[in-house]
Amino acid sequence: MNVLLLGASGRIGQRTATELLDRGHTVTGVSRSGTVEGTDADGFVAVAGDATVASDVAKLAAGHDAVVSTLGPSDDESPEVLLDMIRAVVEGLRRADVERVIWTGGAGGLTVGPETMLVETDDFPEEWDAIARAAIEAYDILSEADDLAWSYLAPAALIEPGERTGKYRTADRELVTDDEGDSYISMEDFAVALVDELENENAVHTYLGTGY
């Protein structure tokens, strides 16, 4: 599969590129600078692009089988940039006539009880509130794109660099927790879940939570 990877220079993006390449896919990795450190395998090319501009996305996506987004705001950007990104990606894919897209979202919109999202709980960190709510708005925009074969994939409450075990669990818009109630996944196994969904298409038009 020929995949356009947006946000390829980020920590999740680099691990997703590695997972895709290890499975024999070809990857065009997009970053603002046009460079992606640590990824120089055959089948990978790095290009520059602005994911907030629909014409840029359309030009980059043309000729690809699917688009994967691991985009997120940089430290000096407002979380609201996620809304500019999702709108540009949706419009860009339509112009490029590419239907398949997987968007890496946030755990804040996953449910932890009847009609209660993680972001609404008392223990949710205040410093993550703005980005969590922007990610939920981005999902709302994507969910209206019925003409695209989209999947919205969210990590566990805690995601960090770790081991690739190849094991994980998923739930339809629910926070995945272990027997102790902890919600965690390594970035490596999140990349596994993402590429599995790309290949299997089991969660099209679904907000999917992941974790152990």
Can you describe this structure?
The structure is a single chain. This protein is of the alpha/beta class and 212 residues long. It has one domain: Rossmann fold, CATH 3.40.50. Helices cover 31% and strands 24% of the residues. The protein is built from five helices and twelve strands. The strands form three sheets. The chain has an eight-stranded mixed beta sheet, with helices on both faces. The protein has a two-stranded antiparallel ribbon with strand order 6-7. Helix 1 crosses helix 5, helix 2 (54-61) packs across helix 3 (81-96) and helix 3 packs parallel to helix 4 (129-143). The radius of gyration is 16 Å and the shape is globular.
List the helices and strands and how they pair.
Elements: E1 2-6, H1 11-22, E2 26-31, E3 44-48, H2 54-61, E4 66-69, H3 81-96, E5 100-104, E6 111-113, E7 116-117, H4 129-143, E8 149-154, E9 158-160, E10 169-172, E11 184-186, H5 187-200, E12 207-211
Parallel strand pairs: 1-2, 1-4, 2-3, 4-5, 5-8, 8-12, 9-11
Antiparallel strand pairs: 6-7, 10-12
Helix pairs in contact: 1-5, 2-3, 3-4
